[in-house]
Design goal:
Helix content of chain A: 25-40%
Number of helices of chain A: 16
Number of strands of chain B: 7
Shape of chain B: elongated
Number of strands of chain A: 21
Distance between the termini of chain B: 59 Å
CATH class of the largest domain in chain B: Mainly Alpha
Strand content of chain B: 5-15%
CATH superfamily of the largest domain in chain B: Alpha-helical ferredoxin
Mean pLDDT of chain B: 93
Helix content of chain B: 25-40%
Radius of gyration of chain B: 21 Å
Low-confidence stretches of chain A: none
Order of helices and strands of chain B: EEHEEEEEHHHHHHH
Number of helices of chain B: 8
Structural class of chain B: alpha+beta
Low-confidence stretches of chain B: none
Strand order of the largest sheet of chain B: 2-1-5-3-4
Number of domains of chain B: 2
Oligomer: heterodimer
Mean pLDDT of chain A: 95
């Protein structure tokens, strides 16, 4: 039974940053990840990280852009913290070896990003996430005395004591199938978003929101679950991402008639309006018959100088070539809005603390809320680092001076039985992969860019039926060593619980704000809906409540770009 | 499209492995190699067998999980990751062999999945910046020449997949080690520890049982991130300097790093 002061679940940017912050405070840390840490999905963050570092920029301007981008649903105290602390975090990254782009004078260079009033996105070509994550991973090695890494361990459930405090977690070692109870004084969930609930998605196969579901089952509230970001530029079919950096470098969006249609929707910011605005514009063009027959519009990167494309967008050149058969330096590439990011998640305060004592959350799994109804590009890396660090610091303080509690092994035995039951299921009923496919297609068609009551209700009905089917679904692999199928079954249960919460919240919010656009309630309604929807688990189903939005200096205004 | 496959099956590290023959038919030319394996797994399971285990995650070539030796070439014929290798890259009816990355330092966990943790231990031996720089100065007090930054990035782009190791006739991990060292040693913040880093990481590389580099160049030919073998030359340069520095330090001529 391994013991740690702080246990971090998830080893992407938020998890690694939290582990490092806790170790800097001198406590022992265990960091668990279902994949090797450098395979985590933070890798895929291409465009960059925002910080008001330039002399003519200010954190207030960054904060305002973020709040306006969120359609005023973000908590402004949290946004202020994130934007104030961004410059120092960026410099810290630079000091530990992240190779941020330097201009010809040797100074840090920036690029423009959507919804921002200043070019404040710092970047490493279009591999910013990968560059930061590998560098943080190196830093974990620096603290090898304090940080134990558990790579390829899948956490199935949190362990609570009799008073409902979080005191550890149950985890399955993927390599040999053994189950282990980890004890800890504080647990930080940094296990990422849940894009795999939708199909297609830009998210990797591991993004199943396991931490969100575990926190929910442990009694923590989820918040803003209806807010799901559709990224404006993804490839049809498989959902590969074309970075917003492409539009930041000047690329145009064109409909099938060759019109630069953003003129109609966002005459000032054009292609660099907020993501929800651009995605809706594209979907409107497609729905009204001005798209291409394959249900797409075009992204024209050829207007960006070739040399600059090869310097700043090199990964995208490869994605275009390999996955769409298009040389993006010579011809436009067909794109459409696609599932990308979970704005909502586990409700936390500004130190990452959840409603469950001893349990923290950070990164995409958490909802602080700095993104509200819509996240700005290049704010997600920032969110993971700032609130990863803060939750690591606070968890270390919480752990200091406490003893390790006795933890009952009941939860371990219960989880062992649950896993065994999945492996032993009869080959009847539906397969896990079929249910997952139906879930993805349902959510992508009904809980996406445009929504209405009828569609969301029918998605909810489907999700509830799939929940029942999933309880008896069988898996292909019955072995113990590296059995990925059994993880798939556990992930499916996690995803269905979250999908139910998302549908309920989307039904409840009878207005249009940020990523939630209800065609039956097309206006934003501050009087009734300037509040968060919280979801908690009551018995087997979700229960909704409300919490206020924290407003400091920025009163809601009409939102135009 | 139809293919004849010879797939390496091995139930666990301790057990003997061997090739298993399979056929797949009706494969979409646009399917990736991993999607083709999924189709094969469906068939194996329908016939009552155990599916083939293999590593995968992002499916877009950035995470470095996938690690297939396809017809003896790490990741296959096109110098991209296994997930970016497509069935259209092979002639219809082709016979294809699929194995895990081969190296005695990479034990097979199951079927096509290997343990690549020796690479982590090389990083642990010095592949990080250990100074804590304290209060942050203004960012542009110490400019970094863009060519140095580009150079560091060309090395930092390594995704740690281990294809270089699997390609090397000597089983050397020098391209990986060189990339890690070149990334940090090209930057001003990595400079103060450059000798210790080069020395420690090469020592650990040898300790793990990887072979030495004799300039075959197979590593750069398969690297999906197109990292140049030049990083190994730079690593040797820093390693030699480190040895000299240690000699001089022992005689008291310079301070040890």
């Amino acid at each position: 039974m391994p013991d740690h002061d702080v246990l971090v679940i998830g080893a992407g940017l938020a998890g690694q940053r939290a582990a490092l912050a806790a170790a800097e405070h001198g406590v022992s840390v265990g960091i668990i990840s279902k994949v090797h840490p450098i395979r985590s999905h933070s890798n895929a963050a291409q465009g960059g990280i925002n910080a008001a570092l330039a002399v003519d920029d200010s954190w207030e301007s960054h904060a305002f852009d973020t709040i306006k981008g969120s359609d005023y649903l973000s908590d402004q105290d949290a946004v202020e913290i994130m934007c104030r602390e961004a410059p120092n975090e960026l410099l810290h990254l630079e000091h530990i070896g992240v190779t941020f782009h330097r201009n010809e004078k040797g100074e840090l260079g920036t690029r423009a990003f959507g919804g921002a009033s200043h070019a404040r996105t710092y970047y490493v070509a279009d591999i910013t996430g990968q560059a930061i994550m590998h560098t943080l991973y190196e830093q974990l090695m620096k603290y090898a005395d304090l940080i134990d890494r558990y790579e390829e361990w899948f956490t199935t459930e949190l362990a609570l004591d009799e008073d409902g405090n979080c005191v550890g977690a149950v985890t399955r070692n993927i390599k040999d199938g053994s189950m282990e109870l980890f004890r800890a004084k504080a647990v930080i969930l940094a296990s990422g978003g849940n894009g795999q609930i939708w199909h297609p998605t830009t998210n990797a196969l591991i993004c199943t929101g396991d931490g969100i579901a575990m926190a929910y089952r442990a009694g923590a509230k989820l918040m803003d679950m209806e807010m799901i970001q559709y990224h404006p530029t993804t490839l049809r079919g498989k959902g590969f991402l074309i970075t917003e950096g492409a539009r930041g470098e000047g690329a145009h969006l064109l409909n099938a008639k060759g019109e630069r249609f953003m003129e109609k929707y966002a005459p000032n910011k054009m292609e660099l309006a907020s993501r929800d605005v651009v995605s809706r514009a594209e979907q409107t063009e497609i729905n009204e018959g001005r798209g291409f027959p394959d249900g797409t519009v075009a992204l024209d990167i050829t207007v960006v100088p070739r040399k600059r494309i090869h310097e700043a967008l090199r990964e995208i050149v490869l994605v275009g070539r390999d996955f769409a058969g298009v040389d993006i330096t010579r011809e436009p590439i067909h794109i459409k809005p696609g599932n990308h990011y979970t704005m909502g998640g586990i409700k936390t305060d500004i130190w990452g603390r959840t409603d469950v004592k001893g349990l923290y959350a950070a990164g995409e799994a958490a909802c602080v809320s700095v993104h509200g109804g819509n996240r700005l590009g290049a704010n997600s890396l920032l969110d993971t680092l700032i609130f990863g660090r803060r939750s690591g610091e606070d968890a270390a303080k919480h752990a200091a001076g406490r003893g390790i509690d006795r933890v009952s092994r009941t939860v371990l035995e219960q989880e062992e039985r649950r896993v065994q039951a999945i492996i032993g299921r009869e080959r009847s009923g539906r397969r896990v992969s079929e249910i997952k496919a139906e879930l993805g297609e349902t959510m992508d068609s009904k809980v996406a860019v445009f929504r209405d009551e009828e569609g969301i209700q029918s998605a909810l009905d489907t999700v509830r039926r799939l929940k029942e089917e999933a309880d008896g679904a069988w898996i292909d692999d019955r072995g113990t060593i590296f059995n990925q199928d059994v993880l798939g079954a556990l992930e499916l249960q996690n995803m269905l619980q979250q999908a139910e919460a998302t549908c309920m919240a989307a039904l409840e919010r009878k207005e249009s704000r940020g990523a939630q656009f209800r065609t039956d309630y097309p206006e934003r309604n501050d009087e009734e809906w300037l509040k968060h929807i919280d979801v908690s688990l009551n018995g087997d189903g979700p229960e909704l409540s409300y919490s206020p939005v924290t407003i400091t200096d920025w009163q809601p205004q009409e939102r135009t770009y | 499209m139809n293919f004849k496959l010879r797939v390496w099956r091995q139930p666990s590290e301790g057990n003997e492995g061997g090739f298993e023959a399979h056929e797949v038919s009706g494969v979409d030319p646009e399917a990736s190699f991993l999607e083709m394996l999924d189709i094969l797994n469906e068939k194996i399971v329908a016939d009552g067998g155990d599916p083939i285990a293999y590593d995968r995650d992002c499916m877009e070539g950035v995470c470095g999980s996938c690690s297939l030796l396809i017809d003896g070439i790490p990741h296959g014929p096109r110098q991209v990751t296994s997930c970016q290798t497509f069935m259209r890259d092979f002639p219809d009816g082709a016979e294809i062999s699929v194995e895990p990355f081969r190296n005695s330092a990479f034990p097979v966990i199951r079927d096509l999945v290997v343990d690549r943790s020796p690479l982590d231990r090389i990083i642990e031996a010095g592949g990080y910046i250990s100074v804590t720089s304290g209060p942050q100065p203004e960012p542009n007090t110490n400019p970094v020449r863009p060519e140095d930054q580009e150079h560091a990035m060309d090395a930092a782009i390594c995704i740690g997949c281990g294809a270089c190791v699997a390609a090397c006739p000597n089983g050397s991990a020098m391209l990986f080690t060189g990339a890690k060292v070149a990334h940090l040693n090209s930057l001003p913040q990595g400079d103060p520890e450059r000798f210790d880093r080069a020395h420690g990481m090469v020592a650990q590389h040898d300790e793990e049982g990887f072979g030495g580099c004799t300039n075959f160049g197979e590593c750069q030919a398969v690297c999906p991130q197109e990292i140049s073998i030049k990083v190994i030359g730079e690593l040797y340069h820093d390693y030699r300097q480190a040895m000299l520095h240690r000699l001089r330090a022992r005689r008291g001529a310079v301070k040890p790093q």
